[in-house]
Specification:
Oligomer: single chain
Number of helices: 13
Largest sheet: none
Distance between the termini: 29 Å
Shape: globular
Strand content: under 5%
Number of strands: 0
Radius of gyration: 19 Å
């Protein structure tokens, strides 16, 4: 297997994990409060990563004592990214939230133009326009289906978008930090800081009453965070960032497909999606625009690319 094939394989694994993430979050929130789920994801990811770093790179743990200011700001952004996305899923649905959260990479491109003076290509401008048209079309179709739940749906969309904005803020900080720090070292603080700040809001009582199935779901959500990030780092090591970005940004299609199947099956363990053919068309238009925005000219493969932080 060539390096390019390895990179694509790792990117597919990341997209696969993130595609199922929103679905399992929607299931978990039936029994566990959103902030508790977010805290659990961070604490599991931190515990696993800290154990690995303690064995392989013990000096990296020093960053927990004296983190750079930009890293603190990045951690605050990532903290809200997780909760905004979680609440967006809670108030809308996995597919809706997955689609709206893809505005994060689009906002990052805009931020790169503003803060890093990066040049924007004509194809990217076209992508912005297509994504905007697609979102307006998608939203107009979805709101028609939310009879009696319009305000709840709007709240979910706004919360998810705020999570995307928080991710773009985090990514801008991360883009500077990776120039002087290893990704694994940064992630120690990025996972550990939210685990601490969300701790006062965690309700432990319901956790003690969960069956093993619900515990398995929570553990999967925590492991999902670390595995997806690790595979993404490997993908960026072996192939171009633009290829990885395009594969990863298409992960909502996995969510759409799975939710379409379970909705057709009329299962009781997750709320059915409300989609029309026109809604799906709008989703395709948004993703097409997003792909044009994040797609870049060939660059040298490197593990230290900003795409590493998401959800």
């Amino acid at each position: 297997m060539t390096n390019n094939q390895k990179g694509i394989a790792y990117a597919v694994v990341t997209a696969f994990f993130w595609g199922f993430l929103a679905i399992f979050l929607k299931i978990a929130v039936q029994e566990v409060a959103p902030q508790t789920i977010v805290w659990f994801r961070f604490i599991v990811a931190f515990a696993l990563l800290a154990s690995w770093q303690l064995i392989k790179h013990p000096k990296s743990l020093r960053i927990l004592i004296r983190p750079p200011r930009l890293l603190v700001l990045a951690a605050i952004g990532l903290s809200w990214n997780y909760l905004g996305f979680m609440l967006g899923i809670h108030y809308t649905s996995p597919s809706n939230a997955q689609l709206v959260i893809q505005t994060g990479p689009i906002l990052l491109v805009l931020a790169s133009v503003i803060f890093f003076k990066e040049k924007i290509r004509k194809m990217q401008l076209l992508g912005f326009f297509i994504a905007a048209v697609g979102f307006v079309f998608f939203y107009s179709q979805q709101i028609k289906l939310m009879i009696g739940q319009e305000s709840q749906y709007n709240m979910g969309v706004l919360l998810t978008f705020s999570g995307a904005l928080a991710w773009a803020t985090y990514a801008v900080m991360q883009k500077r930090l990776v120039l002087s720090h290893a990704t694994g070292t940064l992630n120690l603080f990025l996972f550990g800081f939210p685990a601490i700040i969300y701790l006062p809001f965690v309700d432990f009582a319901p956790l003690l009453e969960l069956s093993w199935i619900w515990w398995a779901i929570l553990i999967f959500l925590g492991v999902n965070t670390l595995v997806a990030y690790s595979c993404l780092a490997q993908a960026l090591r072996y192939t171009q960032a633009n290829k990885v970005s395009i594969i990863v940004i298409l992960n909502p299609m996995i969510t759409f497909a799975v939710m379409g199947i379970v909705t057709k099956m009329n299962v009781s363990w997750i709320e059915a999606e409300r989609f029309s053919l026109l809604s799906f068309l709008g989703a395709i238009i948004i993703l097409a625009g997003a792909v044009l925005v994040v797609g870049r000219k060939k660059s040298k493969p490197t593990v230290e690319k900003t795409n590493e932080g998401r959800l």
